[in-house]
């Protein structure tokens, strides 16, 4: 038997009608219309009111199917606080209306959660309505897209995001998360989109991202704080590469360790491999491996390490150590105006590096450009 949703819906009644009654309030939306089917604790939500119905009744369903939802501007499709073991399935095209606000458009939290996209499904942030060439901190206020906070022992499977106004996946306070075959397609923002980071990772322990395809205009991956993180079998195009940092921003612990980027293709990225630490921050970056990375079409750098972020270029500071930085089989080319490799380390902060099979061609050496490498670790060429 289908269960009635009278516990979810307020009804309005007027016992006595005055001679000159005030206009009656508009009826609340009947959320029963947004729930297509419910059986064995599996609930399907759709249409323009489905986002509100699922926000209210999410803990009553062990499987939540989101079918062609339309979420109004300024509202979050909120799946935080799900019951342990809940499965969420996106079907069709989920769209998010326009509103200048911080977001997020979608949020999720819980333990042993599976969020998956059925074949052909997508989440469309209508980015073209926001993109103004001014990025995330100027111009129109742009919402972040997909926020996962306090997500543990969980899986994100085959999620497709299109037209993100800015940051796509924001992963915060994560433990043991696997992300399988995600797609981020912001190619429509190549002219005016900025700060459309693929994956921003903060305060995380244990993330595997495998099979990602990312077209965007900022970092493909940015690990600001966390440990035990792997990105593999990925494709990144048009953005700012595979980045450690910014390490040392005030809102995050200034520590990153045990990170592997491997078996991935970088195309038309501003730079493909980057470590950046914030001026005057104190912290540590340790045990970072990039392996089997190929690059093409980069227009600034192939590989860059800089320790003056948010400070004065060319004046690195000494507060964040970068140790056990390993490159293996890093090959490809950059554009002629780019620099193949640039290293700007603080005095004594960069040590115990090992680079093997690194061959970046097509651009300039740092010493033949306006840049000059500083405090390069023993055995490393710049």
**How many strands?**
27
The total domain count is 1
**CATH homologous superfamily descriptor:** Single-stranded right-handed beta-helix, Pectin lyase-like
At CATH level 2, the architecture is: 3 Solenoid
Neighbour order of strands in the largest sheet: 3-5-8-10-12-14-17-20-18-15-13-11-9-6
Low-confidence stretches: 1-28, 31-39
Element pattern in H and E: EEHEEEEEEEEEEEEEEEEEEEEEEEEE
CATH class: Mainly Beta
Which bin fits the share of residues in helices?
Answer: under 10%
CATH topology: Pectate Lyase C-like
Overall mean pLDDT stands at 92
- Rg calc: 24 Å
GO molecular function, one term: polygalacturonase activity
Protein name: endo-polygalacturonase
Main location: secreted
InterPro entries: Glyco_hydro_28 (IPR000743), Glycosyl_hydrlase_28 (IPR050434), PbH1 (IPR006626), Pectin_lyas_fold (IPR012334), Pectin_lyase_fold/virulence (IPR011050)
Structural summary, described in words:
By secondary structure, the protein is mainly β. The chain has a single domain (69-368), classed as Pectate Lyase C-like (3 Solenoid). 2% of the residues lie in helices and 48% in strands. It has 1 helix and 27 strands. The chain has a 14-stranded parallel β-barrel. The longest helix has 8 residues, at 50-57. The chain is elongated and about 65 Å long.
């Amino acid at each position: 038997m289908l269960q009635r949703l009278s516990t979810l819906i307020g009804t309005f009644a007027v016992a006595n009608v005055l001679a000159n009654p005030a206009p009656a309030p508009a009826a609340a939306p009947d959320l029963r219309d947004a729930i297509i089917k419910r059986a064995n604790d599996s609930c399907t939500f759709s249409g323009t009111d489905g986002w509100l119905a699922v926000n209210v009744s999410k803990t009553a369903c062990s499987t939540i199917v989101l079918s062609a939802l339309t979420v109004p501007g300024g509202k979050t499709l909120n799946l935080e606080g799900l019951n342990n073991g809940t499965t969420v399935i996106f079907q069709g095209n989920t769209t998010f209306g326009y509103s200048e606000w911080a977001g997020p458009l979608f949020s999720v939290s819980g333990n042993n959660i599976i969020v998956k996209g059925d074949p052909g499904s997508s989440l469309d942030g209508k980015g073209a309505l926001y993109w103004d060439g001014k990025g995330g901190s100027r111009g129109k206020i742009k919402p972040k897209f997909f926020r996962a906070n306090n997500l543990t022992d969980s899986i994100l499977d085959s999620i497709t995001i299109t037209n993100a106004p800015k940051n796509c996946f924001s992963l915060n306070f994560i433990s043991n998360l696997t992300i399988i075959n995600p797609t981020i397609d912001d190619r429509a923002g190549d002219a005016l989109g900025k700060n459309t980071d693929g994956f921003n990772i903060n305060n995380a322990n244990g993330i595997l991202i495998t099979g990602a395809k990312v077209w965007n205009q900022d970092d493909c991956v940015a690990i600001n704080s966390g440990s035990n993180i792997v990105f593999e079998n990925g494709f990144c195009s048009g953005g700012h590469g595979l980045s450690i940092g910014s390490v040392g921003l005030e809102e995050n612990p200034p520590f990153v360790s045990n990170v592997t980027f491997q078996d991935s293709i970088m195309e038309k990225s501003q730079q493909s491999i980057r470590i950046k630490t914030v001026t005057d921050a104190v912290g540590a970056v340790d045990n970072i491996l990039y392996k089997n990375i190929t690059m093409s079409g980069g227009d600034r750098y192939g590989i860059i390490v800089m320790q003056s972020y948010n400070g004065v270029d060319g004046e690195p500071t000494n507060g964040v150590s970068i140790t056990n930085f390993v490159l293996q089989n890093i090959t490809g080319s950059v554009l002629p105006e780019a620099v193949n490799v640039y290293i700007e380390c603080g005095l004594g902060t960069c040590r115990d590096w090992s680079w093997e099979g690194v061959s970046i061609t097509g651009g300039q050496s740092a010493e033949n450009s306006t840049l000059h490498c500083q405090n390069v670790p023993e055995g490393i060429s710049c």
